[in-house]
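Working notes for the structural subgroup meeting. M.R. asked for a predicted model of this chain before we commit to crystallization trials. I am recording the input and output together here so anyone reviewing the notebook later can reproduce the run.

Input as submitted:
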Amino acid sequence: MKNVFLLLSLLVLACKTSLAQFSDDHILNLQTEDLKVLNWGYYLGFNQYDFQFEYKNDIGRDVLVDKSLGFNVGLIGELRLNDYLDARFEPGLLYTSRTLGFPGFTTEADALREVRSTYIRFPLLLKVSTKRFGNWKPFIEGGVYTSMNLGSKEDSLDDNSSGEFRMKKNVYGYELGFGIDFYTEYFKFTPSIRGVFALTNELVPDNDPNSPWTGNINAMRTRGIFINFTFE
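Returned structure, recorded in token form:
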């Protein structure tokens, strides 16, 4: 939870700093920026990934998830549809780490599984903006994504009985977010916050259907939050 507050604080700080910069500025920067049919840029940011579990039986022994702060980086290709709509393709690389705590075990080696994931992501989004107010413009965005988890270990023959936690390699889902475009003298700077929701059941069950690790898990899906800083 502390990491979430840190992410939100960074976004608020970026917005307040940018608003302070433009509040008394009557000169419009980059006046033709939004008239381009194609636009390019890149983004840097932070993420915090979680898991949502669905259980076969409610036995009061939920898997605990210890989340950490990850990072993401990528490119942006934007197609202008009209004054308020843009289609965006944002391929990127994301790293995150989660530690799972399984109840009922007496040793740490059996109870804990560190899940390190490197995702190559391919989001396709629709950006819906308001009209421009001076040198800033709010927007909301949403769309779908597919990604490849390079650390999935899906093809491994070992499972949790050998200390190996396995996940599906290919994941798809949807994401929703909002942000503000700020027009500086030389480039457009955009802080944004986004929620990511996987639709794929990412769990690869253990070989034993009665496994104490995965036997009671019906599905496991990623939930995440991004804070990105975009430069276009």
